[in-house]
Design goal:
- With 406 residues, the chain is α/β, with parallel strands linked by helices.
- Helices cover 29% and strands 26% of the residues.
- The longest helix is centred in the C-terminal third of the chain and has 13 residues.
- It is elongated and about 85 Å long.
Length: 406
């Protein structure tokens, strides 16, 4: 069987040929097809073979390469395996990767700091939704940007969530003719104009606020004068435990109200996604206010479930704080959409709703586990203490029977 030709994928810096070893230049000159972005191909004006500009997605270029018999070299910026095209191409083609220094490495070298302890992520070509809970609390953060998610936009986003304890270092056109670097406050960064080729490093220069699991109820903005329409701290912690969230979980919070469950879920599933729905517009406004206070950027919409759930991706975990009198239809949708090995946690305050939930889950071939939580707080009285009970809650955890070997 004839082996597919090996294709060389070579990383290159903004200083062009100066970033390449002599051997790499020889491989490029000896190739018959040179593929890369328009900016990178301009470094080789006297190339004798065919140049192919890399655009309109990688799928098309893979199809072209698979049918090509000539010697091919592909050019990429920096390290092709660091948020680059190398990860995709290595799965589709027989390639040899020769990386250059990544832009993040170069940026950290400019400030003379180690970067192995930095949190690194990219907003290049992707939404910033959920970024705030990903980066909150880290001492050093590196962000790869693009023309839309530029330093100014990033600064505005951070200020919106009160993350002003960070100072920014922006490295533009690294190793290029127009290289520029400097430190900025977030306000300066918000009002600045920067080159499209840049890396942003955020360095914490003051303490960040911290919240442990089980945020106090009074810290959340709540509806007035009906304060108390919130999943209480103790029940919240028990329900979050029942959901068994992972770092990358996709979570639904149905009947989010103040957003307390969704916000705490987002802090656990900080690399995942959290989606919430609430029928009361006033509560939804409180949810948005609480998101900004607790630095969580989740998707919260106005609606009465199950209407509106079709706009959410399939979840790994679902919390139902209220069914709005439409339990059977709601549970049917939730059970159908739940990912494999997922969990549904429903809080029921009445025996009637407990019974209905158990019957519906049984019809839908789901196994249930029930925790009856009866909790009380001490209350001082005449120099002594008595206990004031919280409303008892049934915490129902549901999983598919076949996934539990039943």
């Amino acid at each position: 069987m004839e082996l597919t030709q090996s294709i060389k994928l070579i990383g290159i810096g903004d200083n062009g040929l100066a970033s390449l070893l002599p051997q790499y230049i020889q491989w490029i000159e000896n190739s018959e097809v040179l593929i890369g972005g328009e900016r990178l191909l301009e470094f080789f004006p006297y190339y004798k073979g065919e140049k192919i500009i890399l655009k309109n997605g990688l799928k098309k270029i893979v199809e072209t390469i698979q049918n090509e018999k000539r010697k091919i070299v592909i050019l990429a910026s920096g390290d092709p395996l660091f948020y680059g095209l190398g990860g995709y191409l290595s799965k589709k083609l027989n390639i040899e990767v020769y990386p250059y220094v990544s832009s993040v490495q170069l940026a950290f070298s400019k400030i003379g700091e180690s970067w192995q302890d930095a949190y690194i992520t990219s907003v290049h070509g992707r939404s910033m939704k959920g970024l705030i809970q990903k980066i909150d609390g880290y001492d050093k953060i590196a962000l790869l940007t693009d023309s839309e998610n530029n330093p100014s936009t990033i600064a505005q986003y951070l200020i919106e969530f009160g993350m002003t304890e960070y100072q920014a270092f922006i490295a533009e056109n690294l190793q290029g003719e127009n290289e520029k670097t400097g430190w900025y406050s977030l306000e300066e960064m918000k009002d600045g104009t920067f080159s499209a080729l840049n890396v942003v490093i955020l360095k914490r220069v003051a303490p960040s606020p911290k919240w442990s699991l089980g945020i106090e109820d009074d810290e959340f903005s709540q509806r007035r004068p009906d304060k108390g329409l919130i999943t209480k701290k103790e029940i919240r912690v028990l329900s979050l435990h029942a959901l068994q969230l992972q770092k990358e979980s996709i979570v639904w919070d149905i009947g989010t109200c103040t957003g307390s469950m969704a916000i705490e879920a987002a802090k656990i599933a900080r690399e995942g996604q959290v989606f919430a729905i609430e029928k009361n517009e006033g509560d939804l406004a409180n949810c948005m206010e609480n998101q900004h206070k607790f630095r969580t950027d989740l998707t919260a919409i106005h609606g009465k479930a199950p209407e509106g759930l079709d706009s959410f991706p399939n979840p790994d975990a679902i919390f139902i704080g209220g069914t709005g009198g439409n339990m059977k239809e709601l549970l049917k949708v939730c059970c159908e959409r739940l990912n494999d090995n997922g969990r549904i946690v429903l809080n029921a305050a009445t025996i009637e709703n407990l019974y209905k939930a158990l019957e519906y889950f049984k019809e839908l071939n789901f196994k249930t586990n029930i925790l009856h939580a009866q909790l009380a707080h001490n209350k001082p009285i005449l120099g002594m203490n008595r206990f004031t009970p919280l409303n008892p809650i049934y915490i129902i955890t549901a999983t598919r029977k076949e996934e539990n070997n039943d």
